[in-house]
C-alpha cells in the first residue's frame, strides 16, 4: 500500500483545501493528513480561527482523507512524525512555502531517502485560499454587500 502524507493548517476549510487533498490522495492508496498544532500556527502564521481539534475533525470528514492527526508542537522536530505515519509520498500544496529540495535533502540526512516529495497543482479558482476568502468578505462588507 502506498501511503501519502499531506500537511497544512486547514483553518477556515475551503475548496482549495479539498482540491489539495484530492490531488494528494490520487498519489497513493492511503492519505494521512497532519493538521498543524495550534502553537505551530501561532508561531509560523497567525492566531488560528478554529482550534486544532476542530480543524482535525473537519479534515478527517473529507472524503479523500483516511486519517487526520494533529502535528507536533513547534518545539518537536517536524520529521519526528515520519516513523509513525511511514509515508511513501509527502504531498505539498501549490502555495505551501516549503522548498522541495530542502525537504528532500533533510529526508536523506535523516534516513528517509525513499520518501518522494510531490508538489500538487493549485485550484484554478479565485477563492482557493483562506486569505483570499477573508479579503473578499472584507471587500463585500465595505461595499455593504452583507
Q: Can you tell me about this structure?
A:
The protein has 146 residues and is an alpha/beta fold. The chain has one domain (3-142): Rossmann fold, CATH 3.40.50.620. Helices cover 37% and strands 16% of the residues. It contains six helices and five strands; from the N terminus they run βαβααβαβαβα. A five-stranded parallel sheet has the order 3-2-1-4-5, sandwiched between helices. It is globular, with a radius of gyration of 16 Å. It starts with a strand and ends with a helix.
Structure characteristics:
single chain; 146 residues; alpha/beta; Rossmann fold; 5-stranded parallel β-sheet; 6 helices; 16% strand
Mean pLDDT: 90
The percent range for helix content is 25-40%
Number of strands: 5
**Tell me about the biggest sheet?**
5 strands, parallel
- For the record, the CATH class is Alpha Beta
Q: Shape from CA axes? A: globular
CATH names the topology as: Rossmann fold
- CATH architecture label name: 3-Layer(aba) Sandwich
Domain count, please report it.
1
List low-pLDDT spans: none
- In the sheet with the most strands, the strands line up as 3-2-1-4-5
CATH superfamily: HUPs
Distance between the termini: 48 Å
Strand residue percentage? 15-25%
Amino acid at each position: 500500500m502506498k501511503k501519502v502524507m499531506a500537511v497544512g493548517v486547514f483553518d477556515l476549510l475551503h475548496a482549495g483545501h479539498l482540491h489539495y487533498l484530492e490531488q494528494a490522495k490520487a498519489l497513493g492508496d492511503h492519505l494521512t493528513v497532519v493538521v498543524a498544532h495550534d502553537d505551530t500556527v501561532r508561531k509560523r502564521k497567525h492566531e488560528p480561527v478554529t482550534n486544532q481539534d476542530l480543524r482535525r475533525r473537519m479534515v478527517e470528514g473529507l472524503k479523500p482523507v483516511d486519517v487526520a492527526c494533529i502535528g507536533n508542537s513547534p518545539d518537536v522536530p517536524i520529521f519526528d512524525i515520519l516513523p509513525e505515519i511511514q509515508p511513501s509520498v509527502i504531498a505539498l500544496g501549490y502555495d505551501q512555502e516549503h522548498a522541495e529540495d530542502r525537504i528532500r535533502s533533510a529526508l536523506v540526512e535523516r534516513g528517509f531517502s525513499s520518501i518522494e516529495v510531490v508538489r500538487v497543482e493549485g485550484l484554478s479558482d479565485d477563492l482557493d485560499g483562506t486569505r483570499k476568502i477573508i479579503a473578499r468578505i472584507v471587500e463585500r462588507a465595505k461595499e455593504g454587500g452583507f
